[in-house]
Amino acid sequence: MMCSLRKMEEDNSKHNKNSVRSLREHVDENPCGIVLNAPRTRQPKVFIKTFGCQMNTRDSELVAGVLLKAGYQLAENIESADIVLFNTCSVRQHAEDKVWSEIGCYGRCFKPQAAGRRKKHGACSLEPVARSPVIGLLGCMAENYKKAAFAKSALVDVVVGPNDIGSIADVLDEFFKRHIPQMAVGRKQRIDAVYDTDYVADKNHANVIIMEGCDNFCSYCIVPYVRGRERSRPAHEIIREIEGLVRKGVKEVTLLGQNVNSYTAHSSWLMAHGRKKIDFIDLLKMVNEVEGLEKFDFVTSHPKDASEELFRVMRELPRCKKFLHLPVQSGSDRILKLMNRGYTREHYIKLVKKAKEIIPGLRLTTDVLVGFPGETEADFQDTFDLMKEVEFSAAYIFKYSPRPRTKAAGLADDVPQPVKKERNQKLLEFQKSLHKKKSMYICQDGR
Ligand code: 5AD
Ligand code: SF4
């Protein structure tokens, strides 16, 4: 096995170039050239490697912001880092395996002593160095494994769950003081300040968290167990964050949430202004009014909650991108029921036809899960037929893997791997052929 450290660096080079630029800005803001509130004279350098969804990308920025404020620096590359934080995803087993393998690879290169305590893996392309960087496991895997993460890998020094990232600086400070493993997990929700830590990696586009967690409990999904129950940020804080981003030059934002349609904000501020609550559609209208913002979109919507009213509002708001990510997961009613998705195949097809009718030029994308327990050839054919009927602009197709604590983990994972692979391949090839056909139409129309 070749070490993928070089690739990790390439993946992160864009992020870290921006990180360094932002760090300079941060220092320059202070006329004395000293980072305010810095608790130490030496500033350890942190490298953050992100896995998974856009929410994790945003969380990595939030971690960077917390650490910069506490006097840490962002490392330009993984080799120069004193601390390497792996911000991770638990949604599929494969995603977790990848993280453990990268931690192992990094550790063998840079923490030969700790790595030596574990069994030997394949060769690494980098020479071991006589330094011992701190390794942190952050995000969903931290919440999934908790203290078992230390047993799983002796290379891991700190473990911090997604709702505990606000304590990252304290956790690292404690580790540097005591040199024993540190962990912060189990918080039900973050404090509001941790949603906006004043750091963004991209100058033009930013992700803004509007709600977090999920109460849907789809039977295959680990998200409600690692991210927690649904909660929405106050609308005025979201708007304040977007206004601040626009002042920094950001032109486009993506509103993030596991289930954005469930956004509901109640607050004393609202009561004082004569309103009981703000829902997702109200929020879209408010975002559309932010002066200087050119475009915005949102992920992820749920087919049981998306409505015709939402589609009409999307059409009418000039700054709202005509883009909808609406995961279908399966085209079989029997499987949708087992998945606890809360809609039928017919509902989904009617809904997307309405969306396409109401929003001209809509870019519609989806997620599909193949090989759910008990999925027969006929169930798969239903999914395939649905994809042919809907003609998505893009589809993300995943092979089911059982996740701990979920309801589906109690069912036999009885679709053999080669069958999952074949079904996955069939759908991918269909999507590819669809794109070829569509680009052909575009050429013909253009002639
Ligand atoms: N196995 C495979 N894919 C999964 N997803 C969620 N849970 C699992 C699982 N256990 C997929 C779903 C979801 C996307 C983010 O990940 O399709 O929409
Ligand atoms: Fe997971 Fe379902 Fe919630 Fe999406 S809606 S995060 S798939 S439980």
Share in β-strands: 5-15%
Domain module tally: 3
Bound molecules: 5'-deoxyadenosine, iron/sulfur cluster
Instruction: Please identify the oligomeric state.
Output: single chain
**Known CATH architecture of the largest domain:** 3-Layer(aba) Sandwich
- For the termini, the CA-CA separation is 50 Å
CATH superfamily of the largest domain, called what?
Methylthiotransferase, N-terminal domain
CATH topology of the largest domain: Rossmann fold
Order of strands across the main sheet: 2-1-3-4-5-6
- Can you count the helices? 16
* Overall outline: globular
Question: Would you report the number of β strands?
Answer: 16
The averaged pLDDT comes out at 87
Whole-number radius of gyration?
A: 23 Å
Determine the structural class based on helices, strands and strand pairing. Answer: alpha/beta
| Low-confidence parts | 1-39, 117-130, 442-447
Helix content: 40-55%
Strand count, sense and barrel status of the largest sheet are: 6 strands, parallel
**CATH C-level class of the largest domain:** Alpha Beta
Q: In words, what does this structure look like?
A:
The chain has three domains: 5-184, 3-Layer(aba) Sandwich (Rossmann fold), CATH 3.40.50.12160; 202-303, Transcription Regulator spoIIAA, CATH 3.30.750; 322-447, Transcription Regulator spoIIAA. The termini are far apart. It has a six-stranded parallel sheet with strand order 2-1-3-4-5-6, with helices on both faces. A three-stranded parallel sheet has the order 7-10-13, with helices on both faces. A three-stranded parallel sheet has the order 14-15-16, with helices on one face. It is of the alpha/beta class and 447 residues long. α15 (377-390) packs parallel to α16 (417-446). β5 (158-160), α7 and β6 (182-184) form a beta-alpha-beta unit. The chain is globular, with a radius of gyration of 23 Å. 43% of the residues lie in helices and 15% in strands. It contains 16 helices and 16 strands. 5'-deoxyadenosine binds at residues 91-92, 220-221, 327, 329, 367, 369, 398, 400-401, 403.
